[in-house]
Amino acid sequence: MTTIADTGFVVALVNQRDDQHSAVKAIYAGQRQILLPQTVLAEVGYLLDRDAGTTALIKFLESLPVSRFQLIGLLPPDLARTAAILKQYQDSRIDFVDASVMAVAERYGLETILTLDHRDFSLYKPLHCQAFILRP
After folding, report:
1. pLDDT digits (tens, 9 = 90+) for 17-47
2. What band does 98 get if pLDDT is binned at 50, 70 and 90?
3. Phi, psi for residue 116 in degrees, rounded to 5
4. What distance in Å separates the CA atoms of residue 73 and residue 36, rounded to the nearest whole number?
5. Cβ–Cβ < 8 Å for 103, 131
6. What is the pLDDT of residue 1?
């Protein structure tokens, strides 16, 4: 099954000091393919460098080509959908990266999002399913 990852999931996977590391690692091991939007990668890079150090960031980047993650760029329709999501939910303070994950999930018809941010993703009503399945 293909899933999509949000920033917190990836950071917890890579940062062994993260409280959610064990739970996230177990979920990661059970996945075949995990889409990783480039917007998420940028945020992950910043947070890993800040919280776990440059060495952890470099190790993560070097491991990406042989990991379960598949890097995904945003297409023009994804950007338009991201903007529409931000506009529709602007009172909820859903951020750009979360909205871009939602847009890419819709494009691929994915129902499961690997995230630690249940608040934002549970507020959103996707176009292709009743609600996202959020793990862990």
Report:
1. 999 999 999 999 999 999 999 999 999 999 9
2. very high
3. -100, -5
4. 9
5. no
6. 86
- Using CA atoms, how far apart are residues 58 and 53, in angstroms rounded to an integer? 9
Q: How far is CA 96 from the centre of its chain?
A: 12
Q: What is the 3-state secondary structure (H, E, C) of 84-110?
A: HHHHHCHHHCCCHHHHHHHHHHHHHCC
Q: Record the pTM.
A: 0.95
What whole-number distance in Å separates Cα of residue 7 and Cα of residue 10?
5
Q: What is the mean pLDDT of the chain?
A: 96
Question: From the CB of residue 7, how many other CB atoms can be counted at a distance below 10 Å?
Answer: 26
Domains of the chain: 3-134 (3.40.50.1010)
